[in-house]
Amino acid sequence: MRVSGTVYEAFKRSAERWPDNDFLLVLPDAARHYDIPAETFSYSQAARQIELLRQRYAAAGLGPGHRAGLMLENRPAMFLHWFALNALGVSAVPLNPDYRRTELEYLVGDSGICVAVVPATRLRDLERAAFGAGREMLITQADLSGLVPIATPAPGAGEAPDAQTECALLYTSGTTGRPKGCVLTNEYYLWAGTWYTHVGGLCRLEPGCDRLLTPLPMTHMNAMAFSTLVMVLTGGCIVPLDRFHPASWWDDVRESKATIVHYLGVMPAMLLGAAPDEHDRAHSVRFGFGAGISPRLHAPFEQRFGFPLLEAWAMTETGAGAVLIASESPRKIGSACFGRPTPLVQWRVVDPQGCDLAPGEPGELWVRSGAQHRGFGFFREYWNDPRATQAAWEGGWFHTGDIVSVDAEGDFHFVDRKKNVIRRSGENISAVEVESVILQHPQVAAVGVTGVPDPVRGDEVMACVVARGTVSEDGRAAFAREVLDFCLHQLAYFKAPGYIAFCDGLPLTATEKIQRAQLKELALSLLGGPATVDLRAGKTRTVVA
């Protein structure tokens, strides 16, 4: 399997084949959020705007080897500027709009961007970040007002961009530390779209017809690689939302005539929390593509809303070089199954010593490509961190840090992130599993589970809970005991929370994932305080009927 060319060239071919097809749709809610018009861009209209931007960037001296920071979120400008820069061999560096001074200083200094395109409200922030990082760079807005020739010549001047040219420098979400920059080539993006196009099964594409709605941010690989490139390669329409809004989700789905939606696990749980409606199945969606739905909510969601949620697994580092998806029957709904690998993916499930485990035994997933070479479709490297790159590929396999199990039929089941496993009295406990149960309690809006030190058991399970509505200080103990009893009906006693802490919010990434390092800090700060209820005495081996 082979891909060639660049992302820009792929878009240009589609614009020639489907000039009148919708390429980008901006819905009214997103338009209001960004203060831009609600409008539709055809492929030919987008191509003309991309060409104008390409000319402006070229006149300013941008070329191969340069990097450009884009704080454009999910606006149409994000797609147009990215493709224009890609045409010149310039790497796009998406800038997370939630980043503040210290984070921006780090990213600006680490990435070496020479120009940043940002909203007017963030110009001053980028100026401070550049000053703090000790870097000179041009800072402009989406209309490129004030863009002047840059001082640094393009390192690769005269080179024609190709599949191996860097397309983007994408920073990981940093849930457990400082973000690392993943160097991603054109091959990485093109293979993501090519893989998606040919998955088949329930994940079937209809060239020239599909409309893909995503609330996921363009600062992450799901939206930037999979969502964008599959629509580009098949002449489909991308419908990017500014974020996930539960109250208006179905209105957006219906208005956009979306045939595909992308999701994260928290989204189905929130949509199921709304009262059933006679219009629940009034939509055009054929399937959802995502990861992390609670196994206990998977079947109820599909039964209520009438389309399958296809659980997939990938990482920024693996891209589509080692992606898996449960798109063929049986999907084993309710077991955190994310399918089985094709011959293009080689894998191992290993114990902490790197020894292969038998089917059914949970261990860390190691992967590599079974195509041209082990890193086909993967990231090239961690920028400025060869030691981390080498460690990730130790022994010739990419170490994912995810704990999975493989059943007798060869299907993979997600257990948890390696760093999220709580070790209590010799038992390994998945934080995600406990969270999925607690989230089903009708009075729990959000929850983060982590381990806290215990003098006898090593770790104890602690749940930081955001309640629906107000819980008085006098009512905390009764509420916590109710949640504990709820867990004991569905989990082994040792998995139930020994502590429940009440808080106003959880530390989240831009994609609504829990920042595990910050959650641990939050839990430790609440331990022993008035907002925390000690439930350890209630964790017994007594079977709850």
Strand element count? 25
Radius of gyration from CA coordinates: 24 Å
Major pleated sheet: 6 strands, mixed
Biggest sheet, strands in spatial order? 10-9-11-12-13-14
Molecular shape: globular
Number of helices: 15
| Unreliable spans | none
| Terminus-to-terminus distance | 54 Å
Helix fraction bin: 25-40%
Average per-residue pLDDT, rounded, comes to: 93
* Assembly level: single chain
Strand content: 15-25%
Helix and strand content put the structural class at alpha/beta
Give structural attributes.
545 residues, alpha/beta, 6-stranded mixed sheet, 4-stranded parallel sheet, 15 helices, 25 strands
Question: How would you explain this protein's 3D organization?
Answer:
The chain is built from 15 helices and 25 strands. The chain is of the alpha/beta class and 545 residues long. Helix content is 29%, strand content 23%. It has a 6-stranded mixed β-sheet with strand order 10-9-11-12-13-14, sandwiched between helices.
